[in-house]
Design brief:
Blueprint (H helix, E strand, L loop, with lengths): L11 H11 L19 H12 L8 H7 L8 H13 L4 E4 L2 E6 H14 L6 E7 L6 E6 L9 E8 L5 H4 L5
Parallel strand pairs: 1-4, 3-5
Antiparallel strand pairs: 1-2, 4-5
Helix pairs in contact: 3-4
């Protein structure tokens, strides 16, 4: 996946944050224990929506599923379209789950991983991140603890990306 975002590279983290918040496990101290499922926040709400509407399925592209959930952001239509184009482009990459190639394209592998996650009685929160395409061009997914400050096990999905080489030419000299 080449430098699709170009001058919007600095906004990719905002899109990841939006997705990570939407797929998070939400537990507040003000809630009275024990919490009862289904919660109507984060991953538990998404599980309910997945059950009702099959948001992540063979019927929908990954980009369309992200769009339905509002994960393209609302503040920058051009950026949103770049994200959806990027997600569609993952069809040209391979998908790896827990170190094993699944035989699926990157976009379909993400859909399958999310479907399986939502089928769990208590789904894992999902953490979206990136890695350098030149280290591994595939979409990488695994279960683990991606955040040192949280004890939850996550389904982590890492998108291959490459920096836009033209960015340096636009920066002030000496920056």
């Amino acid at each position: 996946m080449g430098p699709r975002f170009r001058q919007d590279d600095h906004l990719i983290s905002s899109l990841l944050d939006l997705a990570n918040l939407r797929f998070a496990r939400v537990v507040t101290e003000s809630a009275s224990p024990p919490l009862a499922l289904p919660l109507k926040d984060g991953i538990d709400e998404l599980k309910s929506l997945q059950h009702a509407f099959q948001i992540f399925s063979d019927k929908h592209s990954l980009a369309d599923s992200f769009a339905v959930l509002g994960l393209g952001g609302f503040w920058n239509p051009a950026l949103k379209n770049k994200l959806y184009g990027y997600l569609d482009g993952l069809s040209r990459e391979r998908f790896v789950m827990n170190g094993n190639e699944t035989g699926e394209a990157g976009d379909r592998g993400i859909v399958t991983a999310l479907q399986k996650n939502f089928e769990l009685n208590v789904p894992h929160p999902v953490f979206f991140t990136t890695h350098k395409l030149d280290k591994d061009p595939r979409v990488l997914a695994y279960h683990g603890k991606p955040l040192v400050y949280m004890e939850d096990d996550y389904l982590t999905i890492s998108f291959p990306m490459t920096p836009w080489p033209g960015r340096a030419a636009l920066l002030p000299k000496g920056a």
